[in-house]
# Entry
Amino acid sequence: MLKREIPLFLTAVIGATMILGFFVPHPWVSVPADFLQQCAVIVVAFGYVLGGANVLRVNLEGISRGGPDRLYRIVLVAGMLVTMAIGFFVDGRKFQSSGTSSIWIYNNMFAPMNATMYALLAFFIASAAFRAFRIRTFEASLLAIAALAVMLGRVPLGDVLVRPLTDHGWAPSWLREAPLGAIQQWIMEVPQNAAKRAILIGAAMGVMATGLRVILGIERTYLGGGD
# Structure
């Protein structure tokens, strides 16, 4: 019984304290709230440690078993250990300063690999968008046209390809005068922002409702059960 009641009580007290900390500036509320935030940072730091240990355990087991991905696991483990050793023993507390070995590794190894990954994902996103934008309704047509304008307007080649099509009498003056980049910028700033804000407001309301359910003890799935 206490295995469930004590976590529920601590969750309710901590959640209420954090909520009150945003609205009550009194030290009796703000000081405990700041302390709990610092405790959360410490817990997250331990989570990173456990995550790194889990990465080592899983990949070392995979290396010992062999398999076609053994070489990739070796590179992953070696890169992780070398980076950690440089950060701990070479750079120390100045690992985020400019000119350190850690910053060199980030700028010359991690950042290019990250850019390569996103560049490869662009092809999959374009392929998925082509399959998803089936023009069967008027709304789907608007979505496909907006997506095509945004994708072409993001690159300089888009204006070069579209300009010969709009330099004719049939095109309205605003379309002939406005470059494709300006059109995609308007799409991203006006209709896209409006839809995104509506989604964010809905998500925020869902988060608040879930938080209140957890604080009030209605939502108990984090305890390992649904009752």
In short: Residues 187 and 207 are 28 Å apart (CA to CA).
